[in-house]
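Listing 4. Sequential folding, example run.
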Amino acid sequence: MPQRRPGLIALVSITFIAVSTAIRLMLLAMTPKGAGLGAALLLKTAAMGLFFDLVTLSYALLPVALYLILVPRRVAGHRAHVWLLRLLFAAYLGVLVFDACSEYLFFDEFGTRFNFIAVDYLVYTQEVIGNIKESYPLAPIFSGIAIASLSGAWLLRKYLDRGIQVTFAGPYRRVGALLIVPALLSYSMVHVSLSSISYNNFANELAGNGIYNLFAAFINNELSFTRFYRTKPQDQVNSRLRTLVAERNNSFVNPSSERFTRAIRGEGPEKRLNLVVVVEESLSAEYLGSFGNKDNLTPNLDRLAPQSLFFTNLYATGTRTVRGLEALTLSIPPLPGTSIVKRPNNSGFRSWGEVLNAKGYESKYIYAGHGYFDNMNAFFSGNGYSIVDRADFAKDEVTFSNIWGVCDEDLFRKAIKEGSKSYAKGKPFFSMVMTTSNHRPFTYPTGRIDIAPKTGRKGGVKYADYAIGRLIAEASSQPWFKDTVFVIVADHCAGSAGKTDIPVKKYEIPMLVYSPAHVKPGRVEKMTSQIDVAPTVLGMMNMSYKSDFLGRDVLKDSGQEPRAFISTYQKLGYLTEDELLVLGPQQYAAQYQVDRKTGEAKKEPVSDKFLGDMLAYYQGGDYLYQRRLNRLR
């Protein structure tokens, strides 16, 4: 008699849905108070969450389908077969419990479910596994996972054995073939953007499924702008972009060309000063006393701020280090998908390093870790920089290191040595120095600060600040110090979770430009984007150069409204003084009136003019990138 219901499949499915629901409830409990999740929105979230759980289940059942199709009937009734399925079911439960633990830790760290960050981390297993080992008690965690999965399999053994008998007593090969259909339909009809059910980002995160999001991020690592986003006619976009990048001291090299190469004219005698750009890992503006923090985490930066040109309204372009490096180096808005740093064929740009190389500088990218991580070595070496990374540190140059690299003190001492090498050759130098100490597991040399290592973000911030103080103190004794400009800027903020599409407050970062002999202290309150840093600093040095940058020198009045670019890997934001426009896949668009001081946002109709300005930068930037129009010939 044919089976009336797929017993084994039902058990696998019920278990999957039960664990997925438990994970969603766990993440809901972790969502901050005031997230705006009302009863109606929670019901909508639960419904869409169940839909994505079922979609993910359709893929999870594919191994079961293949097993049913391939296992011969003579094997199905054997006792060894039952034990094999028991072991496979225990392993399956182990995967589900592991996913629950992983989602808890990921949500706790990033405020989101699995996304492109998780994909990037999976590529670099040595660093990520090392980071996990140094951050979490793995033995108890994996022991708990093993105990939970084996206990679950034992408790469900009767249901499992009955399910095996029911399933393999009927036409199981036909059932296996039918199981393939839902997965095919899901692949052709479902997109991860469907989980964006509201303008509340926490609801959107809860409406998804972590496993589905992980694989979707892997597949969509580079998104076609013209295919997935709102667009306007390209000639109209390019024309508007030409207007927006115009400044009083520049002109297009070839106005009839599609290229945006401009000649920038310095306004005064050129200052061939050394330049050290310290890119501080995860240094949100909210941690600095100069921005109102009361925890005394940054005494050195707070002391330097009034001695520097202090930028108080600077916004990071994204949520990853590679986004910050892309913006600082190429001065281009973030394109959807992964950063250009991680993409193939990412060399030959007229980068900040190339601009200064043409002036006779030695440009170096100095990194505390191994530069193969996130493709940094390939990107920087292909765009005008020499590489100094963990492999270039002698044993006696390392006093402390963790999985991410040497501590900030060691990194800065190396940067000073590299600067001295260039100075000895009579060459000005440009060093982009990327730190790592303000990163989980937050380990650093003991005895430096009053917060013990491995106790959290505050310790990482305070040690990073301590190392900055040591950098300035030790550099000040060098013969090249007087003629050196120090730029201290964050790569991104420590976190980007919020209830709106792109929470504006989570993108605020500090920047200090310090050079006692050459930079007059002051505060720059004007809104600044990370892509404006290179042209602004070059402008301070009165440099004349050719540029393909889409950023602007914010210290010169261009007559254009201040704006900034903020993004996740799929959603792109265009921010002005009090407006935010967000674009996403599937022609998504949402405009908000924002209070940048509080981060509060109120939805309003999309302005076509505002959309036109945003597309000029984003669609225009994508056009230049795809056609290699912003590269050196």
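-- end of first protein; second protein begins --
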Amino acid sequence: MTHITDASAFDERRAADADLVAGIPKRDFRLSLANLLIAFIALLFGGIAGLLQGFVRSGFLELPSWISYYALLTAHGVLLVLVLSSFFSIGYLYAGTSRVLGGLAPKTIAFGWTGFALMSVGTVIAAFFILSGDANVLYTFYTPMQAHPWFYIGLALLVVGILLNCVGMFITYQSWRKRNPGELTPLFAFFANAVFVLWVLASLFIAVFVVGMVIPWAFGWVPTIDPMIGRTMFWAFGHTLVNIWMLTSISAWYVSMPKIIGGKIFSDSLARVAVVILVVANVPGGFHHQILDPGLSVELKFLHVIQTFMIIFPSLMTAFAMLATMERTGRAKGVTSLLGWWKTLPWGDARFFALIVAMFAFIPAGLGGIINASNQVNQVVHNSIWVTGHLHLTVGTTVMLTFFGVSYWLIPFLTGRTMTKTLNKLAISQTIIWALGMLLMSGAMHANGLLGSPRRTANTSYNGHSEASGWAMYETLMAMGGVILFVGILLLIYIWVQLAFMAPKGKTDFPIGEDYNEKDRSPLFMDRWSIWVTLSLVSIAIAYGIPLWDFATGHNPGSPPFLMP
């Protein structure tokens, strides 16, 4: 990241845009709202694809000949895991950064809209070829399964658009630091910059993979492709993407949740240390998805398990900080009993309720992640639907409920409206519906995975085999959970439409917590991202240098393409 200064133009723009909306310049909130709109559309269509998947797998529905289960699977994954999470994170982080830094730089707006256009066009292109049946690659687009080359071009445009948004964030971040020498960046902006740093690190892997390897292969310019290099490059991106969502989510836990409950941030320095550990240690964790892959020595797998487990530390730090924040708030209100502070929390506030349920879900989700990353235990659940259940706990529950909770203040903040008591009650109901649906679906997936039921499979009857017959009940429960979740999606969209267009006009704040103790503030070197990026690159080199070199020089003949039905 280079130091980019645009202070004079920045100030001129702020003066010209004095008519602020929700406390941030009009140009900024329009960009955020545009990103949120695409995220909401992706949620609806991705949810429909997921609902149909559950009906097909459980045997309740037979699809027409013009669309396959694997097209639905790919659409569900791409729209929810990649499109929804990316657009929502950008809209949310841009709005929050504008709020705490006094607006986005003009060049940030230019990069943001250009990135938005490329991401939108890329999403439409990729979705078209998924629905046409030319991209049945199970979301992870594992080679040698091959899609239409324009599907990959659509994904490449999406990634390039994300990278342009990263550049835009760095411009505003560095412009603020240039104008405020000797000041520590506000904690929310620190989180936002960390998320975009991770996006750059992740996107470099997928860009090399898709542009340098997959597109030439998909067009037929080269006859074969190395699946091991492909899986390795993909999971360096895929695992980092998971923690991009998580880092985006916990930014709301650390920064906004204290304000909502009437307290203060427990520890600014603890939060920043947790962020730095996630950035430095994250990318090598992708190898735990390849514990059973050939071509990796036992010694390398042991190293990668250790590197993956480093991510546990910021998770435990976050759990401690959240409980400490809530307890301190209760004590400040006069509570003296051991657990009396629990009753003082604003359980009737949908913004808090969605976040606390997301935090509860993170406990089993984290425990499942430890199992998945453990060399021996992973072999019990690897490639079973247990892993899908884990993904629905982490992304589908912890991340999505946090995003929903954020939207309950973010949308009215951007549209100049307020959350009514009726909408608040509906939002609490939506959180309960979503949590119950995920509990049913994810619980059934975990149990079925322990019985050996595979993931990414349309039919699991195995011609009536006795072993597979025990899976049927859990498949039915998964479909029932999907129905409940789709009801939650419809209710959520209704709430969003109300908050955007019909709720009463008024002022809704973007909740930014204050520190308990100014002496706890981090030293200025924490803002030296050159240090953390360098350490991250060293960590990546240690993890990926040897295996990628071995794959590249191992004279693997490669594989021709395979097309999924």
